[in-house]
Design a protein that fits this description.
Purple Acid Phosphatase, chain A, domain 2, 16 strands, alpha/beta, seven-stranded mixed beta sheet, 2 domains, 376 residues
């Protein structure tokens, strides 16, 4: 499966380099570069939020939305993609802010318990802030936007669309965002063992700790291999236990404080075993052209072609540690709580533990009910 990942377009920014990079001719150059690099049959265009520079509720924002639609359509036309191959999640700049929304979102954050999640009334209120985005989404995708996280199955792959901007209402929210982990788990249960590609606007570090920890465990358990995100305007490919966080750059040349950004997109491929490549393609401001980012590939694998290899991580060290621990417990009754503490302490992939426990003589008890074999 081949894909293009774009984030933080911020369409409508007046900076010279931004407008040059988003020009129709430069967009065609980018698409042709991607094809020449071997990513010819693109299966999906993934956009992880912050679509426009101005808010969507003023005249400039509405004008930007018209230009943005044409910009996205250029990608779709160049790769002959239908609307069913376009996957978009909103960012914090795609939310319509107001004093009342900030007050209510602050109250939701203060009283939120991930064990129970968000109820229907809260979802109904929060959806009001996404009305401009939802209107644009419908004109582009010809379907209603759904604020809740959802899982879409396309062939042998699943796309998990996470709304990380549910309670976005102000600046400096990183580390406090709510994602409703109950809804995410409910959707992941529909994946049927397929490879899952998750996408959200914010990196996992922006999510509140209790839900972030649960999300990382779910990613391991439900065969998530990539988490595609943006937000920071800085490129980063970070290898986790059994998956990768791929933080894309932006198409805006400078931050509001005047500092430079990583103007960069990803072209990637992944097979049904979770093995693939991701090419980082940056926009060179000096020469006004797209080229491979040799820095990221050299950092990961001492290559200069801009490509990072995405492979199944080696679990041999984890397996050795788990087997040693299980051998120490042989013949001993151990509580499920103690077992979970051991798993969480080391962030183990639960699928590995299930297999090892099933072949051990370990007995696990939960609520005074003794169980043999897999207890997870």
């Amino acid at each position: 499966m081949n894909f293009i990942h774009i984030s933080d377009i911020h369409f409508g920014n007046s900076d010279y380099s931004t407008r040059r990079a988003q020009d129709v001719n430069k967009t065609k150059e980018l698409c042709n570069f991607i094809k020449e690099a071997g990513f010819t049959d693109i299966d999906s265009l993934i956009i992880t939020g912050d679509l426009i520079y101005a808010r969507g509720d003023d005249s400039r924002g509405k004008k930007n939305l018209t230009g943005l639609k044409l910009y996205i359509k250029e990608f779709m036309d160049m790769f002959s993609l239908g609307k069913d191959k376009l996957f978009i999640v909103p960012g914090n700049h795609d939310v319509q802010r107001s004093p009342s929304r900030e007050t209510i979102c602050t109250d939701i954050d203060r009283t939120y318990n991930y064990q129970t999640g968000l109820d229907g009334d809260k979802y109904n209120y929060l959806s009001r802030g996404f009305e401009p985005f939802a209107s644009f989404y419908k004109t582009l995708c010809n379907e209603d936007y759904k604020i809740k996280t959802r899982l879409l199955t396309i062939g042998e792959f699943c796309y998990l669309l996470i709304n990380t901007s549910l309670i976005s209402a102000k600046d400096n929210e990183d580390g406090s965002l709510i994602i409703d982990i109950n809804q995410i788990r409910s959707e992941l249960q529909k994946s049927n063992g397929n490879i899952v590609i998750a996408l959200g606007h914010h990196s996992l570090g922006c999510i509140r700790d209790d839900e972030k920890d649960q999300l990382e465990q779910l990613f391991c358990e439900y065969n998530v291999k990539l988490y595609l995100c943006g937000h920071h305007h800085k490129m980063l490919i970070d290898r986790k236990k059994s998956w990768y966080q791929c933080q894309c750059g932006t198409l805006m040349a400078r931050r509001p404080d005047g500092s430079d950004t990583d103007m960069l997109v990803y072209a990637g491929s992944i097979d049904k075993n979770g093995v693939g490549n991701i090419m980082a393609i940056k926009y060179d401001r000096r020469f006004n052209m797209w080229m491979p980012d040799s820095g990221i590939s050299y950092y990961h694998s001492r290559r200069t072609d801009g490509i990072v290899r995405i492979n199944q991580p080696d679990m041999s060290d984890d397996i050795e540690l788990i087997e040693k621990w299980l051998n120490e417990q042989r013949g001993i009754l151990i509580s499920k709580k103690s077992l979970m503490n051991f798993i969480n302490e080391h962030s183990f992939d639960r699928s590995i533990i299930r297999k090892l426990i099933a072949t051990s003589s370990l007995s696990v008890y939960d609520n005074y009910k003794y169980k043999k074999g897999s207890a997870l």
